Amino acid sequence: MKEHVECIFNGICHLGEGPVWNVNQGRLFWTDILERKLYVYDPATQDSRVFWEGQQKVGGFAFTRKGGMMLCTDSGVYLLAPDEMGKRNGVLKKLFDVPMVPGELFNDITVDPKGRIFAGTLRSDCKDGTLYRIERAAEPTPVIRHIGCSNGMTFSMDEKTFFHTDSISRTISSYRYDAATGQIEDAAVFFEGDDTQGMPDGITLDTEDHIWAAFWGDSVVRRLSSKGEIVKEIPLPARQPSSVMFGGEDLRDLYITTASQGASDIEKGLDGQGNFLGGHVYRVRTPYKGRPEWLADFD
Length: 299
Known about the structure:
about 300 residues; four-stranded antiparallel sheet; about 50% strand; about 0% helix; Neuraminidase
């Protein structure tokens, strides 16, 4: 059966990334990192709009238990407090500084079952990125170093395994995860692609413990079994899918962000040969169900 790929946002994101489905609001949020904007889509009205914009490049964000939003940016980690939510230029409160070299920025984050944030960085030379664990009353702690391009992350259904993507090495690694402490250890290769498959980018998990991964450069989203084997592919009309997230009332709609980054015509998302690189957001109805995102435990 060929899935119907529906475009739900036909604007052009320079670097659309990090989609998050807010279960309480029934809306999808995502970031355009390079344009310094957050977007929101409401399936009830089919409307998309800029939710927030400012001076920071937001590489990833998470909703908090108290109704705010945590923003991991190129200049630190900030809180958008509940009373600033919904303001297009809502004022941010900096919670953490993170040591970064010029040109380094956060590039995808996730929240663990206890409300901690795992957030990875990308440097302009695609070397020496760092994955940080960020939690209350503690300075951000490096947990993985020397990453080419820190990207998608998720946790297994039993919450005992953490998955992390390095797009440059085309690898998704698995780690033994301790929810009580947030420690990860015992790295193993879960999936390793080759240069014919594009680069694994953002990922999410379905309730059958299969990982869904956007493959940048290959116009496809792939479903990986619990053994890391490709068991399904969904072709896309955009060459640069960047991330995926389940949403909808029953969490069976797969949302896919894409990017026009590197295009000859950024506004149209076209390369020099007229191929569409991306910038739209798509939705695919699936028989599979996602898991609600955990909320970050920060004030």
